[in-house]
Structures are given as C-alpha cells and as structure tokens.
Design a protein that fits this description.
Number of domains: 3
CATH superfamily of the largest domain: Metallo-dependent phosphatases
Distance between the termini: 49 Å
Bound molecules: manganese (II) ion
CATH topology of the largest domain: Purple Acid Phosphatase, chain A, domain 2
Structural class: alpha/beta
CATH class of the largest domain: Alpha Beta
Strand content: 15-25%
Number of helices: 10
CATH architecture of the largest domain: 4-Layer Sandwich
C-alpha cells in the first residue's frame, strides 16, 4: 500500500492565509493521485476554535477528496470515538487544535462530518487488495504529559498487518532544549513505521530500527533556517519500505544573514537592500525574505527608522521581515544580563504558561501533581463558568 504522509496545514493561519489553503489543497490533491491512503498527523487547523469560514475551507478541501474513488477502505476501528466514513484519510488533532478533554476540537468536527477518520486514542485499519495497514494514533498533547499517556495507553501493534504509530509531539533528539520531551527510544515499540507532525521542517529518522517520517508543514510559519526547502509530503510504500519526499509549489523562502559589524552606519541599509533585491527574481513569485542582522550596531543608530520602513518598500514584490535578534547593542546586552530578553524566542502561549506556572507555585499548588497545561485548558473551556470552577477546584483539592 502506498501511504501519503502530510502534516501541519495550519488552515486559518493569519499571516499566510491563502498560502495555507492553496498549499494544503495542492498537497492533498497530489497525494491523492500518488497514494492509496493518507495520514495526517495533526495541525490541520491553526487554532483550536477556527472561525466558520476557516472550517468551510477545510470542509471544501476534504469533501472533494472523499468523493474520489479510493481503492483502499477503512475496514476496522477500535478505540475512542467512532468512524463515520471508510475513506482512507486518517488524522489526529495536533497541539494547535487541542482542547480540554471533553470539548470537541475542530478535527473531531471533520471526523463527525465523515470527511476523515479521527484516530486519536484509537486504531484505524485500512485495507487494499488484501493488504491491511493499522494506524494507531495519539493526538497532540502537552509534552510533559505525553510519556504518561503513552504508558497509560500502552499502544500495541496488531498481529499480521503493517503497523503505523502516528503522533504529534516534540522529540528530544530533534529539539534538545527541554528535558521533558520524549526520547525516541521511549516511543512504543513493535511498529513498522512512525509518523509525527508538529515539527515544521521535514525529518527522516529511525525509531527502534524502523523509519520515522516527519513531513514538515505545508505552509511557512516559523521562518526558520530549516524551512527554506520547498514544502511537501512523503509517500511511503509499505511493501518495499521505499519512500520519497514530494515537493509542492510552496512560496519561496530565504533567510539571509547580514553581518553589520563590518559595515559603517551609512552602508548597513544598502547592504540589507542588496541582500533583499538579490533574492527577488523575474518570476514575480513574491518570496518571503527574512534578513537576520548580526553583529554590533552603533547604539541609537538612525538606521532603525529605515529598517522599519523597509518591508513596505518591497510591498507586492516580496514579504520582507527584518530580524534584529542577532544584533548586539549596549542596552540589549544589559537587559539580557537581567534575563529579560529570553522571551524573544518563546511563543506568547509559552510565556503565558510560564507566568501561570509561577503564580500557581506562589499559591502553594503542587504543580508536579496537577498538570498546569491541563488546568489552563480547563479554565479556557466552553463549559459553563460554574462547571469550570467546580472541575478546577476538584483538580486542585483532590
Ligand atoms: Mn504545527
């Protein structure tokens, strides 16, 4: 069986809203041509409560797909929830879609509408031409909880079929900055293929001697160095173990580092401009260009105003972002010594979580016992206020 692995469409992502939709559409359309079944390991949507027009976008994408003629069929389903279609499109929610345990997330909606099969905390079995592939999914959850959920659920492969383990999580070997991240060797064993979302640059790795494939996002989001390659998806052949990364026509992205320490104040702006203009070509494809300035810059330099205006100067030709993160300045260095600049690389959500955790500790809450991520999700739930307060108090006092 040929299975396509596509991930992290981030439908509704404000900054590149059209790209997110168009590139997901292209990836899904081409994957349907090339493969018998599709696996989508999370972050179809950019948010946990997407607006109706974003949900409409997703419905349009998946309705067209589910009307195609598929050779493969979902023939069995065991676990949480149920399946409402036999079309072999198997998905899990990612961390962007995750909501409190009893609240429906947007991937649940697509599953309930029969547009895909939601295999979160479940196993879906696909069959084509007498061959069976079982997909065991765990949806995206807080990294600190993943190990516990894996040991509680103890996912096991099925006998006599090709087994895939699909998840959406940080892995320590790939993101070695948090001890709580799962190690690859801690993933459940016995599966023939491991499929993960979450990481937006593609990864080919090994877990328990089997292949781990992370296709990366189909849309540009983080503007990291690893995102400069064209976006795409994997197609994996269960018979031969062969796989390929199929590129889509994603928006071009270049990250350019400009060392400003060797430049005088008068030449910094022109150096940045030259860097940008060398990346704009005649094809008029409106690339995303991120200029990362590095080195020392004169304090209070007047280049700031020029640089602030620069993205507008290239309107229509390129999406320009100028990062000063690599610049050293007297004032910046002083702030960084006090630990104030570490926020730069954290998401707003992570900063909020940090503050929440700190407040909980000050209130004397045992944060090792109550999961702060779960607690914050409960507080943000759609349940009535009385219910939320009751549930949170139960958690805190049990
Ligand atoms: Mn993502």
């Amino acid at each position: 069986m040929r299975i396509a692995i596509l991930s992290d469409f981030h439908l509704g992502y404000e900054r590149f809203r059209e790209d997110a939709f168009r590139q997901a559409e292209e990836a899904l359309g081409r994957a349907a041509e090339l493969a018998d079944a599709m696996l989508i390991p999370g972050d179809i949507f950019d948010g946990r409560t997407p607006r109706p027009d974003v949900i409409a976008e997703a419905i349009n994408l998946f309705r067209n797909l589910s009307r195609r003629k598929w050779n493969a069929r979902v023939v069995d389903f065991v676990g949480d929830g149920s399946h409402y279609t036999d079309v072999p499109i198997i998905a899990i929610p990612g961390t962007h879609e995750r909501r409190a345990q009893d609240d429906a997330d947007p991937v649940d909606l697509l599953g309930l509408a029969g547009l895909l099969v939601d295999a979160s905390n479940a196993t879906a079995v696909i069959e084509a031409g007498g061959e069976r592939v079982a997909v065991r999914g765990i949806g995206g959850i807080a990294d600190e909880r993943f190990g516990q959920v894996v040991s509680e659920q103890n996912p096991r492969p099925l006998e006599g079929v090709f087994n895939v383990f699909m998840f959406h999580e940080s892995l320590y070997e790939l993101l070695p900055f948090n001890e709580q991240f799962m190690r690859m060797e801690e993933l459940p064993g016995g599966f023939d293929l491991y499929v993960c979302g979450h990481i937006h640059g593609r990864v080919e790795g090994n877990v328990h001697g089997k292949k781990l494939l992370i296709p990366g996002s189909t849309v540009l989001t983080q503007l990291r160095e690893t995102e400069q390659e064209r976006k795409g998806f994997y197609v994996y052949d269960t018979k031969s173990g062969a796989y390929e990364h199929v590129k889509i026509n994603s928006r071009r992205f270049v990250l350019q580092k400009v060392d400003v320490s060797k430049l005088g104040e008068g030449t910094i702006v022109s150096a940045v401009e030259e860097g940008i203009e060398s990346m704009i070509n005649a094809s008029n494809d409106r690339p995303v260009i991120r200029v990362v300035m590095e080195g020392k810059v004169p304090r209070g330099s007047s280049i700031e105003t020029y640089l602030n205006d620069m993205p507008r100067k290239y309107d229509g030709k390129a999406v320009v972002e100028i990062s000063r993160a690599g610049i050293e300045e007297e004032s910046l260095r002083a702030a960084s010594a006090q630990g104030k600049v570490t926020f730069e690389k954290m998401s707003v959500k992570d900063i909020g979580m940090g503050i929440f955790l700190e407040n909980l500790k000050q209130q004397g809450v045992d944060t090792g016992r109550v999961g702060p991520v779960d607690l914050l999700e409960m507080l943000g739930s759609d349940m009535g206020k009385d219910k939320i307060v009751k549930k949170v108090m139960e958690e805190l006092l049990k």
